[in-house]
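ARCHIVE CARD
Drawer: 12
Card no.: 0347
Subject: one protein chain, sequence and derived structure
Cross-reference: see card 0346
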Amino acid sequence: MNQEVYQLYSDESLSEDKRYTSICVISGNKENLQNLREELFKILKINKINELKFTEVKTHRPKINTAEQFINIAVEFAKNKKIRIDILTYDLQDSRHNIQGRDDFRNVERMYYKLIRNCCERWSKLKWEFYPDENSAYNWEEIKDYLNSTKFPRKEVGLLKLFNEERFKLNFIALEQKNSLNEPLVQLADLFAGFHWFSILYGLECLRFISKENTKNQKFLFEEFENITEDYNKTKVNRFLLIKKMDELCKKHKLGVSLKTNKHLWTPQPDYPINFWLYEPQGEYDKAPTRKTGKL
């Protein structure tokens, strides 16, 4: 098993109605991530932006341009398999989360664990460094400890194999919280996280807008969009245009991202390097942690 060190940079974003939380992890080897970091710093400098946050991508043209250029370079690195961008979004109104006494901090930790484990398995790498955005509310060391006790490939329940498959433990050798102001890879994670929940919250409106853009005011024929408001504010228009750009780039490079199928950004096959994942409860047993249970 290859022992090259790989890195993860992460951030999360909360939807404006507090219903959805999106977590994004940017991953790759040190060299490729350093090259991406340098490109992102150049974009920030050219646009005279100190820090890019999704919540500030509204009507300020330099920030909109920066967001578009961040998307361009991220897709470029992803299509060449230099990085992965994995985004997990969960819904507080689903059966997993709509429970009494839910512990939101521990739940974020658990969802981080699910996303990072999935990411590590996609790379098939064992040795990792983890650099999340600063947040003292989360027990990052506990997440690291759980990851270090994780083996892969996972055992397939009910499947008998002729030979025992060798399994390996993940090895997280470094963990350090990063100030997003000084780390553009964390800013990139925040941007993709924000775009995921935004596409879920406003997916139908986004598709209606894109259709009007593409058809130049020809009548849109799909009945299901007939009741969607056309009173778009400038922030929505700018974000819809950026989602349109992202969708077009992913289609151009055959990255497996779909906007139309589920009416939000979604990657049906998670092996692709840009993986938009709307978490679905796995059954009645799948419940968020409560304040009574406490631990991850």
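Annotation on reverse: The radius of gyration is 20 Å. Helices lie at 30-46, 61-79, 104-123, 140-148, 184-201, 203-215, 234-252.
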